Predict the structure of 4'-phosphopantetheinyl transferase.
Amino acid sequence: MTPRQQAFLARPFALGAEPAPQYPPVPVPTLLLASLLPPHVVAVESFGARGGDWRAGLHPAEIRAMAHAGDKRRREFAEVRVRARQALEALGEPPVALLPGPRGEPRWPHGVVGSMTHCAGYRAAAVARRSDGTAGLGVDAEPHAPLADGVLEMVADPAERAHLAALALLRPDVCWGRVLFSVKEAIFKAWYPLARRELDFLEARVRLSVDPGPEPAGGFRATVTVPGPLPAAAGRWRVAHGVIASAVEVPAAGP
């Protein structure tokens, strides 16, 4: 089992054992993920959970794909796909089914790249056209809470852990281990559709930066240590309303 798979298996214990976050009233629209991406990328996001029939707004093929799933999985699947379909509509795309691929990755329409994410109380999707210069996207959201014991050692190498310790002296109000986790998840979501293989947590080395000002936000740069289509990546992260969001856009190669 790879380190990333081990950490992923630890996530339900890290997240599921936590009480559900209590979110303050959020103005509409809330630009959390959208604030991390360039203007040609369309991001749609929502806080809270959608009530009613989970099938509302889904394509018939998506409903069939979830026929044997549990209620929690169905609602997560449905809510994030409703956001993705809204993003595609804003991009001018027809309402096609967004079925999962072999590793659970969404299958986007031809010429479109995208990424979805959800955590307790938050759903988001981002899409862009390849013709606008985007080769890949990766977005992730996590609750702003510490990682479970032992997970950081699977996510970060010693140099990264020392880096997080230094950041904690600068901003002790930020759950830096979870920020790093989210950033690496965003990188992996951008990597997989391009490389068609998974990336372990320790195969991406990340350095985080912090913006001046009171809000927890900043950038990141990453080096991928295995051969592949994404030797380096850069993006943004932000904490708002109890959620960590991170995003990376992979520009298309020049002529």
The chain has two domains: 27-135, 141-250. The mean pLDDT is 86.
